[in-house]
Specification:
The protein is built from 14 helices and 21 strands. It is α/β, with parallel strands linked by helices. It has 3 domains: 123 residues, 3-Layer(aba) Sandwich (Rossmann fold); 238 residues, pyruvate-formate lyase- activating enzyme (Alpha-Beta Horseshoe); 55 residues, OB fold (Dihydrolipoamide Acetyltransferase, E2P) (Beta Barrel), CATH 2.40.50. The chain has a 6-stranded parallel β-sheet, sandwiched between helices. The protein starts with a strand and ends with a strand. It binds 5'-deoxyadenosine (5AD) and iron/sulfur cluster.
Length: 439
């Protein structure tokens, strides 16, 4: 038998890419590939890319440039590019960087085993189709190896919202929800393999409307059914759109004990004018009202958001509306970005805000969000929460896990507790984590 080939994967961007990377590793596993953490040892290097902002694509090209040295040292090494840059640029990647052997989009990676054969024959392989067949069905049998306690499970892909800044509707295509039975089957398999927490993923996960036994199910229905799986302790979902935050999902936050009190609900801007120009489909007042309804049922929910500053047409007054929204809502976690032009999207054609102005606004916004994030973390000190322990910490005898609000928590505990949910009292707030003690 030939020795296993080594696969090195580097993942950029969102959690859906993390999930896709796992599934691509499994698909290539059928061709004898095993994952390695040493790029220079690899027989294949796979970059799973993100196209959401300009720099991400540029980062990929510079990473390829940097990796070229490995190819020089080991000429038989193969290079693959997957993800949304692969989808958007296709064969151009090979033109710009001829050492790349394989380009595969996010909707066609179930074909990787065949593509691996082709590159073994010395051919180039490019597939950026949106095929009819369901890639998850083609990839159905996940290997039975033990898994880390927290896992991602993609339930919905693509987006029909067409925010005017965003490439996702073009790179990931139209919105598609996976059928309920397939998701539940995958969830049960994950639990059998040691998973205690499942994070349901989708570009617009709360728009989920997958085929169920009696018509289409909502995300809330799916979550409630999933909550009946014995051994599954926690459920999360991300990313949501304010427009799809229906009452049944809000209710689930109030009465489904396994659904964790954390919600990523991007608002992007606090200015009605900019929200409209972004095609977000709601006003700031509607966002406030929505947050109030959610907090009424779950006061301890930690809210997370995404923000874009310097969107075309954003004035200082518009930006101050965003600052004011942040002040009023209070975010325990947030991601904020300077607007970046994406070719082919409507906003790319509009008059742009000066780069220095964008940088200055981003700094002010991040200072405010950072303060709120720290305050939310500090407020945990003295409180009790549950923690799902995921792995050993750096200090001997310490484990690291996540609280209900998704704060990282360290605590002294026996490593047999990895994979279990325990009650913990928080005793200290550090820079990016909490220290707790078992109760
Ligand atoms: N420029 C800046 N940020 C963007 N995002 C999406 N597209 C762009 C863009 N063109 C941000 C949004 C989104 C997150 C995933 O990335 O805030 O919610
Ligand atoms: Fe992009 Fe808007 Fe769709 Fe989110 S909702 S993926 S930001 S188009």
């Amino acid at each position: 038998m030939s020795a296993p080939k080594k696969l090195f994967i580097k993942t950029y961007g969102c959690q859906m890419n993390v999930y896709d990377s796992e599934r691509m590793a499994e698909a290539l596993g059928t061709k004898g590939y095993e994952q390695t953490t040493d790029a220079d040892q690899a027989d294949m290097i796979l970059l799973n890319t993100c196209h959401i902002r300009e720099k991400a694509a540029e980062k990929m090209y510079s990473e390829l440039g940097r990796l070229k040295q490995f190819k020089l040292a080991k000429p038989e090494m193969k290079f693959a590019v997957a993800g949304c840059v692969a989808q958007a640029e296709g064969g151009e990647i090979i033109e710009r960087q001829p050492m790349v052997d394989l380009v595969v989009g996010p909707q066609s990676y179930h074909r990787l085993p065949k593509m691996a054969d082709a590159i073994d024959r010395g051919e180039k392989a490019i597939d950026t189709d949106f095929p009819e067949e369901d890639k998850f069905e083609e990839l159905k049998d996940r290997p039975k190896a033990r898994r880390a306690p927290s896992a991602f499970l993609t339930v919905q892909e693509g987006c029909d919202k067409f925010c005017t800044f965003c490439v996702v509707p073009y790179t990931r295509g139209a919105e598609v929800s996976r059928p309920v039975d397939r998701i539940l089957r995958e969830a049960r398999e994950l639990v059998e393999r040691g998973v205690a927490e499942i994070n349901l993923l989708g570009q617009n996960v709360n728009a989920y409307h997958g085929e169920g036994p009696d018509g289409d199910w909502t995300l809330a229905q799916l979550i409630r059914e999933m909550a009946t799986i014995e051994g599954l302790e926690r459920i999360r979902f991300t990313t949501s759109h304010p427009r799809d935050m229906e009452q049944d999902l809000i209710d689930a936050h109030g009465d489904c004990a396994k659904l964790m009190p954390y919600l990523h609900l991007p608002v992007q801007s606090g200015s009605d004018k900019i929200l409209k120009a972004m095609n977000r489909g709601h006003t700031r007042e509607e966002y406030f009202a929505l947050i109030k309804r959610i907090r009424d049922v779950r006061p301890d929910l930690l809210l997370s958001g995404d923000f874009i500053v310097g969107f075309p047409g954003e004035t200082e007054e518009d930006f101050m509306d965003t600052m004011d929204l942040v002040e009023q809502v209070g975010f325990g976690q947030a991601y904020s970005f300077k607007y970046s032009t994406r070719p082919g999207t409507p906003a790319a054609e509009r008059a742009q805000v000066d780069e220095d102005v964008k940088s200055e606004r981003l700094q002010r916004l991040q200072a405010l969000l950072g303060k709120q994030q720290k305050a939310a973390q500090d407020a945990m000190v003295g409180r009790e929460t549950t923690v799902l322990f995921e792995k050993q910490g750096r200090d001997p005898g310490q484990l690291i896990g996540k609280s209900e609000n998704l704060h990282a928590v360290h605590a002294f505990a026996d490593k047999s507790l990895i994979g279990t949910v325990r009650r913990v009292r928080v005793i200290k707030s550090l820079t990016n984590s909490l220290t707790g003690e078992l109760i």
